[in-house]
Give the backbone structure.
Amino acid sequence: MIENFAENRFFVRSLVELAKASMSNLDMLARLELGASGGSADTHLKSLCLTAEGRATITKSFVTGRFLRFRKLHPLLTDEALEHKLAWAIAGLAQEQSDWSRDTVNEPGKCIIPLLTRLARTFLCEARDGSLRVRSCYLAEWQDLVLVVPPMLVSAAWMAVHTDGLGDTISNRRIFQQRVQGWLCDSTLPVDDDPFLDHLCRVEGLDEAHMHLNGTTEADKVWMDALRKPSNVVGAISSNIGREHGMHAAIGNGVNRLLIQEDSALTPKLLLRRVESAVDLKSFLLETLGSAQEWSFSNSSSLQQRYAAAVRGRVAENGMSATTAEALQLVDIIISIKKSRDDSFRGLAFFWYALIRAQFCRLLVQQVEQKGFDQFQYITFNELRENTEKDFAERFRQIDRGLQQPIDFLEGRFAPKTTPDGTAIRLMQILRGYLQFLDERPDGKSRGILRKFFSDKKEFSPSLSTTLGLVRSFENGKIENGEELIARSERRLRLGLVVHFIKKTDSDERGRFKEGGYLAPVCRDSKARREADQSARALVMLMNSTAGLSEIIRGVDAASNERHSGPEVFAQVFRRLSRAGIKRFTYHVGEDFVHIASGLRAIHEAVRFLDLSAGCRIGHGTAAGLVPSKWWSSVGGALVQPLEDRLDDLVFAWGTLSYKGVLLDRLPLLDLEIRRLSMQIWQDPVLTPDLLLRAWQLRHLDPTVRDYGMYDVDRERNAEIQLFQDCKSRDPDAHTQFLRRHGVGVANSVLKHGAKPVLVTRETDVLDIEVLEVLQLATLELLQERRIAIETLPSSNVRISIHQAYEDHHAVGWLGVGKKLGSAAVIIGSDDPGIFATSLRAEYAHLLRALESNGAGLEATKILENMNTNSKRFRF
């Protein structure tokens, strides 16, 4: 029994690898495009297939390219071992058609449908609620698959098998469409079929405490927009191509690198051409549904006109979602190709279409090999989601998942603008979509209340305050004189908003800071400080002038690459917003770092500099959970970091060990190393570890106020001046060193020297494993003492951090399972579900499997129940 299970698991993984190798076959894609001269893709394909030689060349490109992609998945295996593994997967695929030979399976025009069908039968099933689900036992393999293969293709193949012999009558078509709507639940990513999670979602509901509204939309949904408006969707990427090459590239320009990583020949122009080819191919496949041999279309039709005509009439009932319509079209294509088994030409057209679709979606989803936050950020910069994500209502539908309704409360993060009007416009975009969503039934049908409400009003463009009032009315039901004027929304999900500021840096400004002179900024990161404060002031002005806004703005965060701006940059902003009445804060920190001690230090800085207290949260906090020895292995046992960062890490460690009174025998060595590095930077023998620690603790001060004098009429600025002066009076020596770090009273050569790279190796690091573990425990104790929760984000961490699999996720240690690293209040979020191909329900499922695989047993469900309770306790 164990052997059969192991053999089955091996086959499933091999099948996934076969699918990934087939659907990322760049040799095949390039061969199909070869010689195209500007006509339609289907006409070009027909010319390629006119001769036996042409068809043989395509087949050879397919087989060779598939093997090379398989080789990329297993770089350490020999060719012979790879061939055996590939043969195993192909043999399983051939079982879909027992009379097929191996040669037939290797023919691209005939293998695509059996491949998708086998994937569908392996992974998908129908749940009791009528939705399409992923078998829980294969959840990890499914997650691996959908990063490379668009899940909608697999779901459509499953649906094509489950048409139950429905005919083509309008009545039968409507019945099937309603079933498809129920299968999909407004999402292209089916969730697992675990009964415990079904119960938890139904009875308690999940609270989403960490989701960025931008980055939510699933890749397949963006693809649907790209088919309708190729230039609008793909054109956005052209303006974001940066000139990033080399180690010290300009920060923020990674889109070109992202394209080249996917395909060395890929450019925005080629991507657009491929999407347009996909439009041609899908149009052709829909046009020829009735006949495999005869087709025609008007050469005078534009690309979009042809596509609009091809999809017209494929939906028999109005009101169906775009996702349902897309699924129906794919089902029709798959069934049509299946019925005409000898029609390898249309099968080849569908394969070409699928290759382009898969490549496009991979540019929207972070891949296994794309480690680190920079890789994640390149996806956010490419702007392919920009056009689709103008519609917020569709994002809320996707999260609510139709009749499933797993989410009880959603904290959606959005970035404020630098003016009140700009922020108001952004809020109106979000709230209009939310209102539209609230006015719908769970099946997506509009109740028509908004339409009736506005038909009775002269105000067709309501103010932000009016919109907020409408939101509250829909959420709670508006009753006047005993009459319910607005019936309470049938949607379960309720929305709160969290403002998140963007961590960013300016390489030109950093250069001028080190060079000095009249163009030098007044302090480190002055531009980021100024822009964040400008956005904060605009937000406060808007909150003060808009009734009801403070009720939906639940908290504040700072997100993006933490290596671009530290917590100190946002300390003044957080204080301003705290004085404005916002009392709940969270901060992305300890997620991506050079040295694990830097990540731990950043968590302490966030808590201390931003004055986080009971009810606040830390986003990610990964550094406090990783096993230090595994982390060192992941970075190859050596790293390079700036000298000043290394000194900060040592001072932080020295202070922590001294305060805790542990590993005191390490203090002399730390003291010696701190003094050595300090002399290299500052050339000042007076600087002691204690003085440097006190100066570090002053970084919550706003250095820009030093030139404002002793008093300012601006109440907020005056509060910062007084804080600055009080700290100067209490500890002038530390205050002087604090200012020196910001370039006050030091030569430019000192600042340049601080940026000098230094090599740190595991063997020579004074911050050995034992010290790092103490720093981790101290960090978790700090969070526990202050009653601060950690937002853990499994898929995001697996993609960005060092983890190879969900079973390795560090949160299991926080939860007392496996290697316990200390306890903490932990809640789950999905971060950017579109970029990580996930959902909050899926994140719970991944963590459940991780707990079970680490020996939690029956306690795993109790742990998740407690986490869900924590989510409700700590939600803003």
Residues 13 and 141 are 6 Å apart (CA to CA). Residues 2-23 form the longest helix (22 residues). The chain has two domains: 2-33+47-194+201-244+254-288+310-381, 498-874. Confidence is low (pLDDT under 50) at residues 243-249.
